Each structure stands twice: as C-alpha cells, then as structure tokens.
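User: Predict the structure for this protein chain, please.
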Amino acid sequence: MKQNSMEQKHIQHLYNRAGFGINYKILNSIKSKSKKEIVSNLFSNAQKNVTLNIDITEFEIFKTKSDKQLKLELGREKIQELKKKSRKKIRELNYAWVKRFSENDTVLREKMTLFWANVFVCRDNSILRIHQYNNVLRENSLGNFSYFVKAISKEPSMIKYLNLKQSVQKKPNENFARELMELFTLGVGNYKEEDIKESARAFTGYNFKKDGTFYLRENRHDFSEKTFFGKTGNFNGDDIIDIILEQRQCAKFICTKVYTYFINPKIDENRLEEITAEFYKNYDINHLMHYIFNSDWFYNEENIGVKIKSPIELLVGIQTTIPFTFEKEQRLSYLQKMMGQILFYPVNVAGWKGGRNWIDCNTLMFRMKLAALLLNNAVINLEEKGNFEDSFDEYYKSTKKRKKYIKTVVNWNNFEKNYGQLPAIELQDLLITSTLDKDTQNLLNNLKIESNKEFCVQLMSIPEYQLC
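Assistant: Here is the predicted structure, written as structure tokens:
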C-alpha cells in the first residue's frame, strides 16, 4: 500500500457523497491509490455525459404537428390516450434513472444531476419536455453555473412550470423572476420586490417551439429600459442572470446548498466562506466540487456519517452492496412514495427539504425494514394504506386488487463472492461509517451471526445505516 494512500473510511465517505456508496470490488481496486488519484479518477469518469434515454418514439408526433393537425389526424380521444401514456413514460424514465445510479460508471455526474434537480425544481407531465429537461441538468451538472441558469430559463418544462409562456409585455408574469432569485440563485431577503417586477419584464416573450427549442416572441417582449439591482439598461433575461451572478450572495447561496448536501448539514461558516470564494471566481461547478473533494477538511471526522440518506441514496446504496432487481418495476414507485421522494415529482417548487425531514415515525420504521423487505424475499402489502390510491373512492373500489407485493430477484452469488468470507467486523466497517450508538453496539455484540448474508441485512436495519 502506498504511504499516501487514502484511509478506507475516507474512500467510503467520498463515494457516499460523490455517488451512492462503493462496493467491495471497487474499493479493493482503488484503496492503494492516493486521494489525488482517486478524486481525479472520479472526475475523469464524470467528463463523459451519457444522456439518459428511453423509447419515446410514439410521442415524436407532438414535435412536428400543430394542435390543429393533431386533432385532425389523431382525434381528441387518441390525443388524450397519448397524454396518459406520457405520464406512464415518466415513471419509466424514473426507473431508468434509478438503474443508472447503480450501474453507470459516471456516478459523480449522476449525483450532481440529482442535486441540481432539487435546486432547479421543475415538474412536467410531458415525457418529451421532462426527458429533455433532465438531460439538460445532466449536461450542465459540472459546467459553468452562468450558462446553466440561462439554459434552465429557456427550457420548455421551466417555461411552462413557472408560467413564462403567459408572460407578455403588457402583463409580465412574476413567477419565474421571483423563484429565480428566491429559490435558484439568491435566497429570501436578498432582493427587493421592485427587482422582481423589473426582472419579470426582461423575461417576457419567452416561449418554445413544438420540437422543444427556445425562441423569443419579440412582439410580446418588453424592450424598454429596466432598473435592476441599481443598474439601468435594456436588459433581457440573460442580462438579468448576469447581474444576479455579480452578487457574491449568489455564490454563497449555491455553496450553502452544496455544503449541506455534500459536506455536512451543519455549516462551518469559515469553510462556507472558503468554498464561496472559490466558486465566485468564475462559477465553475467542476472546480468547486474538485476543490471540496480534494480538501483535507472534507474528510474530518465531524463530516463523516452525519448526513441522513435520502430515500434514493438509501435504496441505491443497498443495491450497490447487494445487486437486486424488481420483478415488477412499478413497485419502485411505491417505495419512493412511501419514503417521500418520487423522482420527477417534487413536492413543490422549493423541492425536497432533505435532512431530518426525510424521517418521521412512519418513514423511519419503513426505512429500517427496507433491506429485509428487498433482500429476504419478504413481501409487503403496500396497498394497506389508502394514500397509495389516486382518491378515497378509488381506494375502496380497488379492494379486489389490493394484493400487490414487492418481490425482488437478489444476486446473492455476487454478494458471497465479494463479502461472504469477510470477518464480521470488516463487513460492519464497510457498511457503517457513522459512530455507533451504545445500545446499537451492544445489540451487534450480542448477535449470533449465522452468515454474512444475514448479518448484512441486520446491519442495514440499524439506525446508523440511515446515515452516510
């Protein structure tokens, strides 16, 4: 082993934050490398932007035909049927993304895409638009933040979601301008109401073509002078974003989100100022993340095992250690709903709050049972709770169809090959990075370990496994 090689715990910490955990095979292949080599390899892999694709051929007609042509060629009933199918396709895109988390080599880019999906929050029932939006997040997830924000402002899903399509010169809609500053770039209290009104005028006329490309309806755009953050000029939307990024508060706002997501929910103000200074130089996301993961303080004990895993991190983390597949992929939707994080369906424009908000008395118990449900060939009647139905009436109408269960196919051979012969304490160190509670430690000390297979499920069922 090299003298400057990383500690195993630090490698696990890096992969927990930059990805969704690390399996034993990959850990063994890199544990003799230095921090610089391991971090560089993560970023080297992440340079490849592999778009997330599913078959959406049957919806392509919406890109080329006007509404009038669609009605003539397809009829109202067929159009409604395709729109219903579109919503189902979004669930398919959801499953494909979860699969990507556990299979793709470019884990850092996918983790960054998931992070940005909860910053530039958006929701759309059109598979064409939300598919494009997700790939725009992916493409820009490690790029320049200035270009990123401008690209997001021109995305069809965002234009529709925050009512930019209805924003015209005579009646500017303020929704996007407000959320741009409040949720995307500056935070509450760092702008004035007048700034919202003036900037809303700059985004008037934003629209998109049937094929998803942006265009400006010039006859509906306000070309007159606006005064924004003390500057006056004939500003357009891109100009407004440039002025926002001139505010150091923008860099601090984004770095605060980065800090709580990738470093620690409890912020060290000195470290926050440090990374803000780096990001403010040129708003290079790749540089910011490289700086963080190469910093010695990122691996300090107070930053390890202190973050509550999101439902997706928990689910994919289990799958990273023990590969499994669902017999029916639809069950993945139920699990996400039960734990409170459905990809492509954020709760509102502010997104998921994260942290302690992932946990309540119901979700905690379910999360602690999750590994056993997924790996022990256990079944659970998910429809015993009415909130899985679309409505109260539909719940009672479906009593004859309520026997829906989770069933998985688990690759225990893969687990045995990688983990089967490990001493129990090594397996424990691989799965748990947080400090064990005294009661948990006593519980583990008194366990009669029959096999690593059983011990693994037990480890994944303790409270400390909920942390990374």
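The chain is about 55% helix and 5% strand.
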